[in-house]
Amino acid sequence: MRSILDLVVPSYCAGCDLPGTRWCADCAGSLGVLPVSRPGLADAYALAGYAGSARRALLAYKEKGRHELAAVLGGALAVALPTVRAGPFVLVPAPSRPSAARARYGQHMVAVARACVAALVRAGSTASVAPVLRLSGRARDSVGLDAAARVANLRGRLRCVGRPPAAAVVLDDVITTGATATACVAALREAGTKSVHVLAFAATA
Ligand SMILES: [Zn+2]
């Protein structure tokens, strides 16, 4: 069904360019729930490898200005979440650096988390967003840093600034070295969160 949105929002699949849909059934069906193994990181999962349609959708959302894909990414994460843990769900978006957030129209994982909550609530679950993690502006861009340097880059700069939930699911876009996810988990645990899972849209091999 076409809508007024088709006039202003590109209507083709973010994963494979199929016209008439933002996210086609084939690309949706290519997602699952995969455990992600990184040193020092437990209870971490991703919907797909960082390749193919999952990678294209993430880049379209983060780098190509397709803001409307927050609903696609959030919806896919909502489908997977009950496999990761039982509800109710408190979702903590992985924070972006302030400079990256300015360049990318805000904290991009907050929008995804809000869309994920909306989808969970529509499905009958209890869910909320707790955007309690902040990354200070001093953290350098991690491009070009190895895993140890990324962890050092984040230590002390990623912190919990609000009341921590008792149980949280950290939502991230892509897990590469695992440094960001590990820092998110550590910051929540230090603040008092007892149970932390991590769910990313994609993870590198
Ligand atoms: Zn597709």
Provide an overview of this structure:
The chain has a single domain, classed as Rossmann fold (3-Layer(aba) Sandwich). 38% of the residues lie in helices and 18% in strands. The protein has eight helices and eight strands; from the N terminus they run ααββααβααββαββαβ. Strands 1-2-8-7-3-4 form a six-stranded mixed beta sheet, with helices on both faces. Strands 5-6 form a two-stranded antiparallel sheet. β7, α8 and β8 form a beta-alpha-beta unit. It binds zinc ion. Zinc ion binds next to α2.
Task: Please write the CATH class name.
Answer: Alpha Beta
Number of domains: 1
Outline the biggest β-sheet. Answer: 6 strands, mixed
| β-strand amount | 15-25%
Provide the CATH architecture. Answer: 3-Layer(aba) Sandwich
Radius of gyration, in Å, reads: 16 Å
Q: CA-to-CA gap between the ends?
A: 37 Å
Number of strands: 8
Mean pLDDT across all amino acids: 89
Which word captures the global form?
A: globular
Considering DSSP H and I runs of 4 or more, what fraction of the residues is helical? Answer: 25-40%
Structural class: alpha/beta
Give helix and strand order, one letter per element, not per position.
Answer: HHEEHHEHHEEHEEHE
Count of alpha/pi helices: 8
State the low-pLDDT regions, or none.
Answer: none
Bound molecules: zinc ion
Q: Strand sequence of the main sheet, in spatial order?
A: 1-2-8-7-3-4
